[in-house]
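We emphasize that the prediction below concerns an isolated chain of 563 residues; any contacts that depend on oligomerization or on bound cofactors are therefore not represented. The input was used exactly as deposited, without trimming of termini.
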Amino acid sequence: MSGRFNPRRLARAMLQGAMRIAPAHAAEWGQAMLCELHYVEGNWTALAWAVGGAGVLMKQALFSLFIPGPASQMASSDRQFFAKEKSMRKSTLIAAAACLAASLLFFAAPAFRQAFALSLRQWHALVGSLYGGGESPYPGTDYLKMADRARKNHDAEGLAFVAAHGWGTPNAGAVADEAVQIDPNLTWIYAVAGARNWSQPEFDQRIGKLEEYDPQNATPHLIDAQRVQYQDFARGGFRPGKYADDPAWQNAMAAAFASPKLDLYADQLQQLDYNVSRRYGFDDPYEVESQYFLSNGISPGFGNSMDYAKSLLNSGDALAARGDSAGALKQYWLVVHFGEMMWPPQHRTYDVLRIGIFASVFLEEPYKHLAAFYSKRADREQAEFFNYLVDTTKQARLSNSAAARQFFAGTPAEQWNANILGASGIALFLCASVLLVCAVVTLARSLRAQPRNLQSGPLTNLLGGASAVGVLVSSSALYLSYRPYDELVRAYLRDGDPSHLQTLIVFLSFLNYDSYPPKVGTLYNLRDFPVYFWAATIVLCIFAVIFVAVRYVSNLRRSTAAA
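Result of the prediction step, given as a token string:
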């Protein structure tokens, strides 16, 4: 029977262990608790008795670390001992209340409120994963309410903003119509709404208005060609490249390649986002992120323009083989003209890099064809020139590709801060939950006490104080980890320069709670749970070693002083 679990033996060992680390003035009281243990009826009752006594002794040990002194100056009688316990309970309550009040003061800072909202998104993502799909129910901007507000104020830019950013909503095209009706100068918004709403019956009418508004621009024709491809797919007969045989697609692409300019309406979108953001007080980082990715305009039909370029180059080769040099050069230069129109502005943002990569790839082929054309005609100077352009576009492609990779790679600081924000959000929730439980337990015990006064056990005091400190520390970490990115949002709202947002985009990409598997800081990332568990275990062990070492040094000094 010696192998069976004996609660009373465990209770005795627990009290004896607590007495070894307790200060000298508590040893007599601990010995009395140990003697009383023999008279407690019931093994489990004795274990509960020992847990309570050991908790008091451990509190006294912790208290003595911060207020050291000779045992003769400390309380020795039972009355004085429990008076000290009462004062410690009161000091714990005051400290917990101070930590909680300091934590609540953080909500006065807009940056903390944004950081707190970001940390809550991982709980939304958790709920979404539990109900299937892994998608977050986080609503974001309510574009319907924003559209209603813009209508009441006759705000054409506000309506255009809704049409641009809420393009997935069924009424995005109708909202764009309202904006253009109030301000015809916003007709360009049809390029954004139309490029994403091919199935709407009013598509032809809107693109027709866009062509009238900007007749020299290739963008309306690219949108028209893209719609042909979409219709081919919607009919269920889609095959790669099949749309290239459609006369409507060929006519639209011919008109695009012959256009004198290619305006993606990047400047107009950037100014619209800036004006509306300031007017409506937007400071949500995810809303600003969507503005960043629209700040370089749209890119309709760029993918299938490669098919049309290939057909022009093949036609040029056929004309050159028949001796029609002028016809061949015309076909080649049509492709070069369109590719050079694609070259984006020189500012370095992700969309610019992406389009720059595509323009480089697009131009390599016509330059190669021109180099071969002049080489066959023994025009060495022209052939070398176009070979040089081929090498230049290759270098530009490699440079832009490296810059694009670096764009989302960011620096270790972005990933570190995202980890801190995610972990702090989890810690804040858990510590606040523990603090709430401790408060409820204390209130319940106090209501049952006669006379009614504050009653809390040693374990409740310890957990309550630790969780209050945890709330303060996690709130501080939450604020400090997001503060630099809030400054980037403020900088964008001050001057409208989207380059301020590059670092913010990288930070949010690391903080993407809706991805699967989740990236960082997410509660339901079971793959990383063992890492978090063992990290917490190691930290607790370090604190235990520090406590034992401090306790040993303290006892050694007392023994030396007594000798």
